[in-house]
Amino acid sequence: MSQGSFSQGVGEWIGAAEVYDGDGRFAGMGRDTRSVQADDQAGRVTVEVEFDGPFSLSGVYTIADHGSHRTYEGPLNIGYAEALGDDLVAAHNYWPDLGLSQRFFLMVLPDGSHQLSLALLSRGDRLQWTVVGEYQRQVDPSDPVPPPVAAMDPEGLRDDPSAGRGELLLLRPGRWSGQLHRLDAEYTPTGPADYIETVAAHSDSWEVELSGADYSTGLSFTLLSDGWTAWTPAGDLMGSGSLSGGRGFSGQFHLLLEGLRVWRREVVSRDGTIKAVLHIWYRGEQRIGAAYGALAFQPA
Question: Of the residues 13, 177, 179, 256, which has the fewest C-beta atoms closer than 10 A?
């Protein structure tokens, strides 16, 4: 098991979140402020949250670090998280004040001063909200507060799957490249791997080529999309997922020849230059490995 402490997450973080409803429609912006303070002697972290958007949430919760995992002990947030490294946490948790369960990942980007996150909030099996977050570290309380993101009108953007950007950032023609950290079934690091994802656009579909993906020397597949969702026809890699403003993605894909399934979660920065990815592989319900990292974009 990875012994990552997620130490890079400590500090003051100010962010702007794009919130999408259960159908993937833009619901509004959220102003998100988090203060993360560590008590090294107690092995605990205290998080103070203030979120104001289509829904509101504020309060404090405590995180206990158990080395191989972390527990959210409430009162605001209750659940279980795994620190896959010092720069990534993946959690399943519950917000009692909202009555919502959450599947969540958050990554500190290589510069150490920015984070990207993707939160899927559900009641039962019904998705209620998807929150695409981007945060900046406030190093000194006297530093200027990051300026607010330009206002986005929910009514005007409700029927626009790109949320006003004119393109789906995840599906732009070009190449995503970088190194992914690979982990085994117990989330023990097995070493980095170079990874390239190439996207080519056609009139009604996209061709995606993967180089350096786990469990395959190379994969290519066709992707279809209505802007809100994406799916494949029959092929070597098959599956579907949900898009959030063209910036966030969560979906399940099957590599049938290997008897494997991968849960792909990705989120792109607002400027479109970098994306955080978390790919967890399963055989049936048994986890067999994972890969994560930050990829840079080069347009075609």
Answer: 256
Please state which CATH number belongs to domain 169-299. 2.40.128.20
Please state, in angstroms and rounded to a whole number, the distance separating the CA atoms of residues 183 and 250: 20
| Distance in angstroms (rounded) separating the CA atoms of residues 45 and 64 | 6
- Contact predicate 198/175, CB 8 Å: yes
Domain 7-140 identical in fold to domain 169-299: yes
CB 101 within 8 A of CB 119: no
Is the CATH code 2.40.128.20 the one for domain 7-140?
yes
pLDDT tens for the 300 residues of the chain, in order: 455 555 556 788 999 899 999 999 999 999 999 998 887 677 788 999 999 999 999 999 999 988 778 999 999 999 999 989 889 999 999 999 999 999 999 999 999 999 999 999 999 999 999 999 999 988 766 666 666 666 788 889 999 999 999 999 999 999 999 999 999 999 999 999 999 999 999 988 999 999 987 777 788 999 999 999 999 999 989 999 999 999 999 999 999 889 999 999 999 999 999 999 999 999 999 999 999 999 999 999
Q: For the chain, what are the domain ranges?
A: 7-140, 169-299
